[in-house]
Amino acid sequence: MLHFNLLLNRVGCCILISDEFFPRLMSGYNEEDIILSTAYFYAALAAGIAAVVVFLVLRVKYGGLKGLYSKAIASFLFLLTALSAAAVNPGNEVYAGLIVFGLVLGLSGDIWLDLKWIYEKDMEKFLNAGFIAFMIGHVFYIGAIYKFAGNWSVLTAVLPIIISVVVAIGNVIVSEKLLKLKFGKFRTIVGVYTFFLFMTFAVSAVAMLNNSFAKQWILMSAGGLLFAFSDAVLSNMYFKEGGNTKANIIINHVSYYAAQFIIASSVLFIK
Predict the structure, then answer these.
(1) pLDDT above 70 covers what percent of the chain?
(2) Domain of 100?
(3) Rounded Cα–Cα distance for residues 98 and 42 (Å)
(4) Domain membership flag for residue 9
(5) Inside any domain, residue 148
(6) Least confident of 119-123, 161-165, 252-256
(7) pLDDT at 1 over 50
(8) Mean pLDDT over all residues of the chain?
């Protein structure tokens, strides 16, 4: 029987729920182990959705440490979702590991960003720490896609980079000039972060087109797009006067957690 701690040690990959996509079995795994691991995956996913709902209630109603602790739990569950998925289909530990590292950095970024609301005198330090954590997390996502998608040409490999540079520069200019966001001293890090943020979507979208709409790249594309949307809302919350509304808090976090859980689930389908 596969024990729960094995889920944390076996960073591997792909869940497949139907008979058509049922995972390959490796030494030490039998069908009962895989079924149990699949149950862990669904349990982690369901618990994650419930935790996000609880977090949103506490964040909107109370904020502070209650919001921080509940957010950390919700974020830990998208990490656990990926680890559970990894145990279902052993043999793709490198891809799963890269995604897990990205999610760990997302978890740390979530904590840094919420701390800035609690310790306002250190807001700048916590905001920069959050930017850096998420930025490195996107590097892991991007690395996983480039390494495992395959079918790259010079054009398809470079195209996401060019598009992301244009988007990053355009985002700063449009946000400040037209949307009246005030980045101030964060202007540079916002631009750099936007590049890596959009790269996750752009490179996964190209990978999806290059690989006949393979499920893992559809999920990564959807996750990347939701991540970008979430951060667009977050920019309004952080850098626009009056932007930190309850509606924006809910929209931002629902889209963000959807992105991270979808990215975690891509581990299910990698081959």
Answers:
(1) 89
(2) 17-268
(3) 21
(4) no
(5) yes
(6) 119-123
(7) no
(8) 89
Q: Do 55 and 71 form a contact (C-beta atoms < 8 A)?
A: yes
Give the bridge partners for 13, in sequence order. Answer: 89
The mean pLDDT of 62-77, rounded to a whole number, is 95
Helices (H), the chain: 4-9, 31-61, 64-88, 93-118, 123-149, 154-177, 187-210, 215-239, 246-265
Q: Is the pTM of this model over 0.85?
A: yes
In this structure, the number of other CB atoms found within 10 A of the CB of residue 208 comes to 21
Q: What is the DSSP letter of 173?
A: H
Q: Considering Cα of 71, then 248, then 222, then 207, what sign does the dihedral take?
A: negative
Q: Is residue 180 part of a domain?
A: yes
Q: For residue 88, tell me if it sits in a domain.
A: yes
What's the pLDDT score for residue 28?
52
3-class state of residue 195 by DSSP = helix
CA–CA separation, 60 and 249 (whole Å): 8
DSSP string, 20-41: GGPPPP-TT--HHHHHHHHHHH
- The count of residues in the chain is 271
Tokens of 179: 């949307």
CA distance 20 to 194: 38
